[in-house]
Amino acid sequence: MGNDNLIFADIEMAIANGKIRRKFTRDPRGTRYEIVCPAKDGREIAVICRIKSTGKLLLITTYAL
Question: The pTM is what?
Answer without folding.
Answer: 0.89
